Amino acid sequence: MVLREPIGVAADLGHVGRRWHGVPAGMASRSVAPSRRTVSPRGAPARRPHPFRLMPLPRSSFPTPRNDRQQAILHAAERLFAQRGFHAVTVRQIAEAAEVPLALVGYYFAHKEGLFRAIFAHHGPLHHEAMRALEDARRAAALPGEPDGLRRVVEAFVLPLLRWRHHSASQHYAQLLARELAQAAPEAEPALQEHVDPLLQRLFDALQAALPRASRHDLADALRFALGAVQAHLAEHRLDRLVAGTRAGPASAQRLSEFIANGIRAVLAPARAQPAERA
Questions:
Q1: Region entry Disordered: which residue ranges (predicted)?
Q2: Structural domain containing residue 243
Q3: 39-53, 75-89, 180-194, 197-211: lowest mean pLDDT where?
Q4: Both 131 and 235 in a single domain?
């Protein structure tokens, strides 16, 4: 049984609700004496100006819009999970990093596992983009006379993932993905099965189209080699520290594609030659 960290959902919601209605914290419980109507010199009743119109709240006093707070929680959790792993991060640390009340994490995501799955769902469009690229490469590789279908398949897998790694909006997600591919926490399995396994299955099908003579065992090895090389690239922060100033750039994506494609060819070449040698 997985023990989930309890979150006091109701602890701060009253405070949040009051701020959402434009009332500063602590004023909702004050009693307000009935106001007296002032009379103008001509005898007509004059409206008393609303105190909030005379003294507007500072911009920093207004609550952050709900969507912005939800995004702040997602981004903070994504960064912390990528850096420390699922079990090393608490919900309180996520709330502090996002600068939101602890109760909001539970209000939006229920528990830490729900927040983890929401991160993968948030980046779902990236996975769909990579799957479309792999499907196009699979169809091209299956055409007769295609000179380098394997290279096209490898590029369709490698290039999108490395773009994630080098884009500020997805770099932490790429690191998180590399961490979970290496050793997934049990709580991460539902998210990986929903968002990552279909991508890997599409890659396997594309490799099969590019290498129709290869056995399923050989294709599985090719998939492992490709994943290992890409994973090292996505989680290269350790190498960044060891060899300063050598961070992989756009040119490294092409080199990585060549490395994987040529490595697969070299490994599978002896297997292809075996039937001819026996004959």
A1: 27-67
A2: 123-270
A3: 39-53
A4: yes
CATH number of the domain that residue 82 is part of = 1.10.10.60
Distance, in Å, from the CA atom of 113 to the CA atom of 104, rounded to the nearest integer, reads: 15
Per the structure, the count of domains in the chain is: 2
